[in-house]
Each structure stands twice: as structure tokens, then as C-alpha cells.
Amino acid sequence: MSSSTAKSVETKPLLPAEPEEARKVPMQREELVVAVAPRSGHAEQFRALRNSLVALNPESAPRSIVLTSAAAGEGKTVATLNLALALAEMPGARVLVVDANLHQPSVESYLGLQRRQGLCDLLDGSCAPDRAIRQTSVDNVSVLGAGSLPNNPSVVLGSDRMKSLLATLKRQYSWVLIDTPEASSISDASMLGALVDGIILVVRLGETPRHLVEQTHNTLESLGGNVLGTCLTNARELD
Ligand SMILES: Nc1ncnc2c1ncn2[C@@H]1O[C@H](COP(=O)(O)OP(=O)(O)OP(=O)(O)O)[C@@H](O)[C@H]1O
Ligand SMILES: [Mg+2]
Question: Is residue 7 part of a domain?
Fold first, then answer.
């Protein structure tokens, strides 16, 4: 059986993160509407999604959430970051964004950061948590980048170490948001979905065929995931 070919990504050795490095980098990408256009209707859409999640969690228990989509490029990473920013507006919230897209990591790029050691280095023991997790320029939002990309992402993400890392992170953060690859062609999201409290399915309006969204939803649930709802994206529709 042939395995899918990962798109080209930075493969040179990564440095450990400097704890203060990301704190000084302002969020400037226009897609990060909750940071750069906080009064926009689009930012309000992410606050509405945040409010739905908070309503589903009346006891304010720590929650881990996977964001995925049926197809690639539907807006998962942008949605993950905007939701993180919206959650961080809640009093006392501590939010961690984890880049578990080990095929095409892009969380650091959207934040204007260099790729550094991260999730995979933490999992293989080559990096300490305080050199992998970075505080961003927004109070209470931290980021754990993908780190050094392995040849076998699904093995790494399905490992006992990953399960135990998720449990540890939930003791330290009130919300752990996990960005993943598309679920229709890569199994990582459905596997991670079974390890977390809930899944948000990101759907690009008007582009992804309905049957593919339904099929992905059913697959995520049949593999043990709890699909909490959808996040509809389409900049033209929402702005
Ligand atoms: N809310 C938004 N407003 C404007 N542009 C957006 C928005 N969401 C996504 N985009 C654009 O859509 C493209 C894909 O977004 P994003 O990287 O978030 O998708 P993705 O699902 O994470 O992709 P991949 O499957 O490669 O990880 C980018 O060019 C991004 O700028
Ligand atoms: Mg992405």
C-alpha cells in the first residue's frame, strides 16, 4: 500500500524555543480577526463559537478540543487560532494551541514565529516542556508548535506518550485546542479525536461537498470522537 506523500516543509534541525521570544511578536495576520479586528462581525462569529463551547461546559472543566475538516485548506488553522483568542477573553482562561498537523504545520507561520522544537520533540524526550511551549503576545494564549516532523505521524500521535501529554496539558491549561490535518485523507485527526473531549468540524461554505462533510462526521464519531459542532468558514460570507 502506498503512503500519502507529505507536502514539502522545513526539515532543517529546529532550535529549542526561547521562552520570551514569541511574547514580543505581535499577531498581525489579517485572518486572525479576534486579534486584529476584534469588533468585526467575523470576530463575533468566533466569540459565538466560544460561547457555545463554554455553555457545553458549565462546570468550567479543562477541555481538549480537536479542530479538523473534511478537506485540506478549509480554514482549520485560522479557526483554531481565532477560537483560542476568543477563549482567552474569558476571565481566568489559560489556552494552549497545539499544532498536531505533522504533514503541513502552519500555526507558527500564522503567528509570525519561526518553527522551533515542539510537540514531536516533547514526545520523543529531546526537549523540555518549557523550551517547547511558548507564551504568545496575547495574554493567556500559549503555543506548542509541531516541532521536528517524524516519518510516521500517526504512530507518534497515537502513542501512549501523546495520551499522557494530553492529560498533563489539561492540568495546566483550561483549553487545549489541537490543529490537525484534514480527516478525509489522513487518519491523524480521527485518532486524536478519540483521545480528546470534543471535535469541531471546520467546513468551508460553498466548497466542500455535503456528502464529504457527512462522511467525515460519521467517521470521526464511529472511531470514538465526540463531534461538538461545526465552524463554518468563508471570509466572503462572514465579513
Ligand atoms: N476566516 C478567514 N478569513 C480569511 N481567510 C481565511 C480564513 N480562514 C482561512 N482563510 C484562508 O484560507 C486558506 C486556508 O486557511 P487555513 O490555513 O486555516 O486552512 P487549513 O484548513 O488549516 O489548511 P491545511 O489543511 O493546509 O492545514 C488560507 O489562505 C487562509 O488565509
Ligand atoms: Mg492548517
Answer: no
